[in-house]
Amino acid sequence: MSALGLKEYPSLLTQAECLADYIGRHGYVLSAVPTEAANRAEIYKRLLALIADAQTAGSVDPKLEQDLRSTYQETTAFIFPEKNLNGLTIWESAQTRVKDEGKQTHKSKAKRWFLRFFEPYNLPLVMGFIILVALFLIIILSTHAGCTADGTNDPAGWIWLCAIDQYLIPMGWGAIGTTVYVLKRTTDARNNETYSRFRLSGYSTRVFLGAMFGLIIVELIPSLGDGAGNFANASVAVIAFVAGLGIKPVYAAFEQLAIQISDRITGKKTDPK
């Protein structure tokens, strides 16, 4: 395992090949500025030449590796800021679409299909489905929390019902909204060849934040309820889900609010970065 934590980490040559292939497919050396386009084309040609030298030699010696790394960095310098990709993200994106069937001949088709759901890029889908099922079960169970066997009201049960409606259900919808947001970003990254497993490392934290903000937003909008903590379930679901789905701007808004409060208390201006 590499220092980066990947079980299969591509070599510098493989990453350079992936990047060169992407540029060849998309013609990304083109630019509106002629001098810039010419410079990019020259870097791209050098990258192709070094890749060809390494492929012909069958190995990468220290001098060739140094030249290849330097040219690869120059190529990445103009493509990463604009496209948010490099050789590693292109390689990882390809791994999510193409499986080496030769390494999985000992596994049945059904088993491969099942295990695919536990790939890193499918974890948002799996977690979102689990949260959704759990949320529906909670909603179903909560409808019977306030009744006894003879159909009369149970005060203790109604306390639980109010707590679930007011706190747990908004958190669940907020978490689902964040799951949908992460799933959309992951799918877009795979399609744009910018996918990276490292970008999913904070996924669980985002789901937790989505649950918290789903609850906070609902609590901050009293017009959804009747003033006694009883909210219209449909409104709660929509507002909490949207808060989770828009976790990035919602988080930014609360962060700015916290900074302004801190500045007023301390009398110092805080750098948002």
Number of strands: 0
Low-confidence stretches: 1-5, 225-229
Q: Given the C-alpha coordinates, what overall shape results?
A: elongated
Distance between the termini: 33 Å
Largest sheet: none
Helix/strand/pairing category: mainly alpha
Order of H and E elements: HHHHHHHHHH
SS strand fraction: under 5%
Rg estimate, integer Å: 26 Å
Total number of helices = 10
Mean pLDDT: 78
The count of domains is 2
Helix content: 55-70%
Explain what the structure shows.
Keywords: Membrane, Transmembrane, Transmembrane helix. The chain crosses the membrane at residues 121-145, 157-183, 203-225, 231-254. It is a single chain. The chain has 273 residues and is mainly alpha-helical. It has two domains: 12-97, no CATH class; 112-266, no CATH class. 69% of the residues lie in helices and 0% in strands. It contains ten helices and no strands. It has helices spanning 12-26, 34-57, 62-83, 87-97, 109-116, 123-142, 155-192, 203-220, 233-245, 247-266. The longest helix has 38 residues, at 155-192.
